[in-house]
């Protein structure tokens, strides 16, 4: 199959502490995801704080290096863009959590839009750039006059995030990576912003990686759901399948709070030292919290099991706790019989 996104055996290790007494954590561990080309999609990456979501997003955005593995966008490895940042940002655009940090308070917002249209969008002059900007703003429900000549602090967080989205659209990217784009936005406006992703996906044929704590918005917009836990992709699949029939005990736990609008996991649900400890576990990272955990879950890394279609989980329970001769880190998938 030709793929629009392929994440292959992706790993990221961070060193923590000093040179001598420091430890390493694998913030993203052997993640494999492949999404087909052709039909645009929104993939939500969900998981509580410290599960590796932003680390994964930053690798896709080339903001940090991967330790090993590879990422392909439209079949091209990210390494292709090593010497060509412009080409990369034409293809992949970021949207960050805090729209106010994406724009300097001393620069007019329209200056950013013109700069993007002319440097990345291919506009040869300001007149052509203006047409592009008007169209992008219209797609996010804003008009040019409302934005013209204004500074970031003259907008609400929600408006400024819409402008960030419009700016991302100007380059006609193939992929937008939105890391917690609604976290700082009033709860009542979150669904509107995320619904925009859906509209833009269809209008512009752009794919989205949507990273979120906010399960209810993920619930409404996703075509695919990826659940991360301590760097492991513990469940992945078509959103309908994962949401209607979550297989991993952790995803089941998370989905208990859906569909309450604005439902979140508490950031201090897991204490930081417990987080570090879980990253270091040899078996399943969720074993200490899992009501179904057995001995094998604590001693061996669970295998990837293909439940049906694209739906996979990293869990012993779905293989009747059979010990595998190889682990998920070998990148193998066992088909559920
Ligand atoms: N530069 C870094 N150096 C060391 N450890 C890091 C670094 N960046 C992230 N980590 C660690 O990697 C793990 C995953 O962090 P990450 O920010 O990717 O999680 P997250 O799921 O995005 O969390 P949040 O929702 O809070 O942003 C955490 O334990 C974090 O402390």
UniProtKB/TrEMBL annotation:
Keywords tagged on the record: ATP-binding, Nucleotide-binding, Transport
Domain ABC transporter: 5-255
Taxonomic superkingdom: Bacteria
Signal sequence region: none
GO-annotated molecular function: ATP binding; ATP hydrolysis activity
Biological process (GO), any one: peptide transport
Classification via InterPro entries: AAA+_ATPase, ABC_transporter-like_ATP-bd, ABC_transporter-like_CS, Oligopep_ABC_C, P-loop_NTPase
Protein name as catalogued: Peptide/nickel transport system ATP-binding protein
Source organism: Murimonas intestini
Lineage: Bacteria, Bacillati, Bacillota, Clostridia, Lachnospirales
